[in-house]
Amino acid sequence: MAPKEIGIVRQIDIDSEMQQAYLSYAMSVIVSRALPDARDGLKPVQRRILYAMHDMGLRPDTAYKKSARIVGEVLGKYHPHGDSAVYDAMARMAQDFSMRYTLVDGQGNFGSIDGDAPAAMRYTEARLSAMAAEMLRDIEKRTVDFGDNFDGTLTEPLVLPAALPNLLINGSSGIAVGMATNIPPHNLGEVCDALCHLIDKWDKLDRVQIDELMRFVQGPDFPTGGMLFRYSDAVEGGDAVRAAYATGRGRVTVQAKTFIEEAERGKSRIIVTELPYQVNKAALIERIADLVRDGKIDGITDLRDESDRNGMRIIIELSRTVEDPRKVLGLLHRYTPMQSTFGIILLALVNGEPRLLPLKRALQIFIEHRQTIVTRRSEYELARARERAHILEGLLKALANLDEVIRIIRRSADADAAKAALMKRFRLTEVQATAILDMPLRRLARLEREKLEAEYKEKVKLIKHLEDLLRSPKKILGVIRDELQQMKQKYGDKRRTHIVEHKVSEKVITATELLPDESTWVTINRDNTLIRMPVGPTIVKGVAPAAITRANTRDVYVAINVRGQAGTIPVHQISSESMPVAEVVGLPSDRRVLAAFSIPRGLFESSNGAEPERKGYLFLATRNGSVKRVLLAEVLRQIGSFSVMNVAEDDELVSVFLTEGEGEVILVTAAGKAIRFSEEEVRPMGLPAGGVAGIRLQEGDSVAAADLVRARSDLLMLTDQGRGKRSSLAEFPRQGRAGQGVVAANLGNKERIVGAAAVQAPDPLAIVTVRGKAKLIKARAVKAAPRANAPAQAYHLTKTDSVAALVVPVERVAPPQPTAPPKPKRGARSASPKGSVAKKQASVKKSAVKPKGKKSAPKKTSKKK
Fold first, then answer.
1. Which among 369, 359, 365 has a CA at the least distance from the CA of 183?
2. Residue 829 reports pLDDT greater than 80
3. Do residues 561 and 591 touch, judged by C-beta distance below 8 A?
4. What is the percent of the chain where pLDDT is above 70?
5. Alpha-carbon distance values, 482 to 195, 200, 376 (Å)
6. Residues near 471 by Cβ (< 8 Å), separated by ≥ 6?
């Protein structure tokens, strides 16, 4: 017997009703809130925000509007929920640390990586970004379906045209009922290349394997950079990224980008420059501080956040007792989010249903979506072109019979009669006849008639092209491919996240080991700009150079200006585009940079009290004849900008070069004098100190240049009048420091030496003039002559120009050999050359050998202290 209903009370089965109600709620959350559409990669709230901004006319080239105004528009027309839900979604689309490619161009405080919340919506402003405009392009051409809004008074798009593969390039995250999505962001250029490859193989789509696509899509590319480990012990076969792309689900390990640097007094520091995706920087620093306070991590003495608008920089200072900084870094990876796991779940809506998508299927869905968009856009444009061509045919027919058309119109009683008469006489449609009657008199001019004819030909051509396009699915794919290439060209950028090609369990990796081992030229120009160029025949580019240095991307770059101020920067951070030295190295922009060097990291530095791998010195000479020698290890310990010499107010540096401590140096004056002495006569001094006398100058004279004496080399000198000569260094006798020197060149009246260097015939040189011209020559191009002779013309100048400087490209300091020579057997004769240098080398090697089982002296001393 059926249950009896009483009034509006109805008896139901509670189990069945709960199941239906819960399923209805679950599907509502899945479809209308939590999961993105696989075609445009947007959730409903994101799509409504972008469409509302488009409807308000907030293009990338228009003025910003208050966020409160935008949120109100979205709430009132499309999204009947709380304002915080809309504003939070809009703010996230404006955060460059959350979105790989932002869709909202925000102005104001939209939050930070420290977890700071965005400012209230009444304070911030926004408009569409350029990439969001691409997502909405062609929406007015009936390319997508529209549906009713929540109250049926307006319509909204059910999906956006999406010229960009937003699902993959920006990713998505959301928790639905019984399921969740966590799609990582990817690099636009890589995804576009994979889509183009898939289009090329469209006829053989079943044969495309995941490994083919991974030649293009290397892995996720997070907006915060960091490192991603491709392989994992927990995955069968090891390749965690491949497993995630093949199945749509997987787990990969992401890690902060860190560098280990030597600090003063044998200490070390860990520098964090990039964090894993969605890691809160402030919370991370607090977590590290708690671990140190609780005693879980020892050896950390200081923790600083030096991040600014130029980038992230967290400094973790270590104590002198930390022998291996990698152990501390390993503990930080273990106990903090500096190393974390990102769970990839490629779940999105396909035809309104949630589907787990492998990489190939996600790419295929986007291409199919674009096929629909291009087809509907072409149909729309074809219909408009046919309508316009139809009207133009009528106008041209009227212009061809202009006198008769005018006569018919003048004789007609009204417009309707004129329209009917024209339609009957010239077999026109009502649309054509109306267009003729509406045609202004200026159209009767000859040039206007020619414009109409040209427009008609263009429309006929366009109709033919669109009809041909719509008949050929292959050509539609070609249009999609061309548009993807344009998107890559316009918006593509370099990968930020570094893919590490081994397992995270193997060893602790720092960013230094992941840097490309490439040779490069680094040039500082006389206008104080810095640029990095690939090694090739051209080493002088742009304006006149001040310093040219051969470098490696793993080196430390040191730049020094004429006031004795220096700055260091890793070579890999120097841009291939010209940038001011003040921004890159931190030196004052009003002081000219004089010299620069590229030094392998750690080559001249000591570690834990042990001897450094090599001894090195920096030798400096000033215009007033002062010289100074500084240990290179002290220079490399400095961070940012610092002073290498206290230069007097009326003086400036003229030469800076590297030495090994046992050579000879030569100073050349502007009046043509030179002095040669042993560099050991100049004792090493600390960074703040001034110099000692190197040469005694006559009145009106000054030092033009200084250099290290090299075996079998010449001293090349160049004057301001473009004259030069090469004289053998053997002609210059060795003297004591602070003497008057000997004649180096017989100069003419008012002629001054502006540059000098110890060179060999094949060495390249750059001659720089006052007017900013630069010419690269070989040293052999300057004629050889005895010491006392006059120079000959080496460079032809204009009447208003003169030589400003002679720039010699500095070679990179060579790193030590990876393997030491085998030790000679006891009693065997040594093959090393005889002499004091060989004895010194032997003594250094002997002192560097530690007896087995004994502690080194520095460790004993530190224990006593």
1. 359
2. no
3. yes
4. 91
5. 11, 12, 18
6. none
- What pTM does this model have? 0.76
φ and ψ of 38, to 5 deg: -65, -20
Reference 198, options 5, 365, 21; nearest CA is 365
CB 78 within 8 A of CB 51: yes
**Residue at token pair 């009693």:** 827
Angle at 280 between CA 286 and CA 110, to 5 degrees: 125
In contact, 473 and 486? CB cutoff 8 Å: no
∠ CA 138-146-347, nearest 5°, is 90
**Contact, 690 vs 626, CB < 8 A?**
yes
∠ CA 352-355-360, nearest 5°, is 120
pLDDT digit string (tens) for 285-313? Answer: 999 999 999 999 999 999 999 988 878 99
Say if CB 165 and CB 365 are below 8 A apart.
no
Name the phi and psi angles at 630, rounded to 5. -130, 140
Q: In the Cβ-directed half-sphere of 534, how many Cα atoms lie within 13 Å?
A: 2
Q: How far apart are CA 329 and CA 260, in angstroms?
A: 9
Residues 271, 306: Cα–Cα separation, whole Å: 10
Residue 114: in which H helix or E strand, if any?
A: none
Compute CA distances 642 → 314, 383, 568, whole Å.
21, 70, 9
How many C-beta atoms surround the C-beta of residue 680 within 10 A? 14
H or E, element range at 565: strand 565-570
> Given pLDDT bands bounded at 50, 70 and 90, which one contains residue 816?
low
**Could you identify the residue written with the tokens 């399921």?**
179
CA distance 585 to 836: 41
Encoded amino acid at 17, one letter: E
| Residue 54 confidence (pLDDT) above 80 | yes
Maximal CA-CA distance, the chain: 130
Provide the pairing of β-strand 339-345 with 300-305.
unpaired
- Catalytically active residues, by annotation: 123
Give pLDDT, residue 493. 93
Q: Are 542 and 531 in contact (CB under 8 A)?
A: yes
For 275, list phi and psi in degrees, rounded to 5.
Answer: -115, 160
Q: What is the DSSP letter of 31?
A: I
What pLDDT digit, counting tens, does each position of 396-408 carry? 999 888 889 999 9
Residue found under tokens 């189990």: 15
Task: Taking residues 726-744, report their average pLDDT.
Answer: 94
d(CA 446, CA 673): 83
> Phi/psi zone of residue 695: left (φ > 0), alpha (ψ -120 to 50 degrees), beta?
beta
- How confident is the prediction for the chain on average, in pLDDT? 87
Q: Which residues contact 436 (CB under 8 A, 6 or more apart)?
A: 394, 395, 398, 405, 422, 428
Q: How far apart are CA 105 and CA 116, in angstroms?
A: 19
Provide the token pair at 601: 């990291």
pLDDT in tens, 430-445: 999 999 999 887 777 7
Both tokens of residue 788? 């006392």
pLDDT digits (tens, 9 = 90+) for 745-803: 999 888 999 999 999 999 999 999 998 888 889 999 999 999 989 999 998 888 889 99
Q: What is the rounded CA–CA span in Å between residue 567 and residue 635? A: 9
Q: Residue 609: what pLDDT?
A: 47
Q: Which of 37-51, 233-247, 344-358 has the lowest mean pLDDT?
A: 233-247
Name the nearest CA neighbour of 394 among 452, 441, 446.
Answer: 452
Q: 521: which 2 tokens?
A: 């030229």
pLDDT at site 860: 37
CA 435 to chain CA centroid, Å, is 56
Band of the pLDDT at 246, cuts 50, 70, 90? very high
Strands 653-659, 692-693: pairing kind:
unpaired
Distance of CA 793 to CAs 674, 717, 723, 750, 782, Å?
21, 12, 4, 16, 8
At how many degrees (to 10) do helices 359-400 and 240-247 cross? 60
